[in-house]
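Most newcomers find our protein records easier to grasp once they have seen one. Nothing more is needed to start thinking about how sequence determines fold. Here is such a record, shown just as it appears in the course material:
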Amino acid sequence: MTRNQRMLVLLATLAGLGGPAWAQTAFTYQGQIRDNGVAVTGQIDVQYRVYNAAVGGTQVSGVQQVTNLSVTDGLFATDVDFGADLFDGSDLWLQVSVRNPAGVGGYVALTPRQKITAAPYANTTRGLTVNSADDVDLVGRFFVDGGTDFVGVGRSSRVSSAEAFGVQSSATSGYGGMYLRTDGASGWPFYGYAADTNLMWTYFDGTNDKWHVNNGGNRLTVRGDTGAVGIGEESPLYRLHVESSQQRTIYGMTTFNGGSALYGEADGTGSYGVRGDADGTDGVGVRGTALNGTGVVGTHEGSQAYPGVYGESNSSAFGANAILGELHAANAGQTSAAVKGVNEATDNDGAGVRGQHLGGGNGVEGTSLIGTGVYGYSVTGTGVRATSVSGDIMQGHNSGGMVFQVLNDGTTVVPVLQITGGSDLCEKFDVSGSDVRAGLVVSIDPASPGDLRVSSERYDRTVAGIISGANGINPGMLMGQDGSIATGRHPVALTGRVWTWCDADSGAITPGDLLTTSATPGHAMRVGDHAAAQGAVIGKAMTSLADGERGLVLVLVNLQ
């Protein structure tokens, strides 16, 4: 016989722990252990199991283990807790296994098993536990705390210290929580709350199939027949029906980047995502205000010809507006706008802002006291476009009358035309040659009617002008007729100031000198033979070029 096989349990008792039965399910196991008749002193390991029979049977619990348990003169005591669900009133036996000394060898099951008697069931009657503090525990399902007046169904702990009644359901689908029913349609199967003179309650009225939340009056109503919700309205006609005498009936706010405080979506034909009607005097159907964004955004993503924002006014009163944009900022930024239209289409159709008037009025009218009445801006397209079927394409007026007019055929009528982008008068020509660039002198090309070539002989009487654009001076006025012989790729100055390539091999050039063609391709030179220069003069030099040098000279073009 081994040492462990000689162990005996001479004394064993079970005792319930103190405290409320609903809060604690542990009990105390006390025993005396001897080895070959000698009381053990030291450390041992103990395991506890519960069976449904004194011998054999089925283990109905987990294993409770206590290690390094101190034993003095054979006596020891431990707390054992198998939970509340184990003790349902049936007979149970405790199996004790011991390992001595602790951590050495295997466990030896002691016999016989100890029957669990009255100690853990001392406060239990058919699954209902009651202690001296008037606490009630119905097998872990129903709890009454006599000390705090808390009642719990399915749970024994409060959500907050002031909770009086709580329900927790194990349902994961379907109905769960709490069910209330009244025997009559006029019964209100919910609850109410009263404090001082304030009164609030919620109830279901079976006579009209409506659920109400009452707080100084029926503030919220849900209709059972349609599911319509009314706020401030007891007979809601719409899915959400809100009525209020306050300044703002519905207020939405979002702090999410790119979020929508109020979002409406319409999938039906002829329906509205958001629609606002104002029946009162000076009312506004829809108003949007933004501290740092856009007040109202209208978006149309369909393929039909519908607007993102649609404004309609049936008033004949002076000053009536279908859409009115107002910018009240005292120091608005340069790109600020009361009304702004953006078209992001990649084709050439559509408009950012379109105005149409079927009568004799204006399609788009812009008014500004000290700024710009109408302003158009485009990155790669047209900033402002005006189209007229039979009338003037555009007119400009001041206080004295019309001062600018674009006729329907494109003829422009102005009292004075001032050009600030360039300083010469050009025509468009095609120029032959391998090195065609701004500043070169060109002559008539006899081999190609209407075209020019780079000049390459002295005193050439076919000289036609100078290719404009050299040294940063641009053409001032450019003429030509597209689709005809009177057009081309290069602007050739016929009069005005242009920079010209010159060759001073025949003598230095000084301001006032007459210039003609030279043998250097595209270069001018000082006229030395005035008889030969008849009909070959390009113009007069306005800057100098030293003898023997080649470079740019500013020339006042004046063909002679």
The two ends are 142 Å apart (CA to CA).
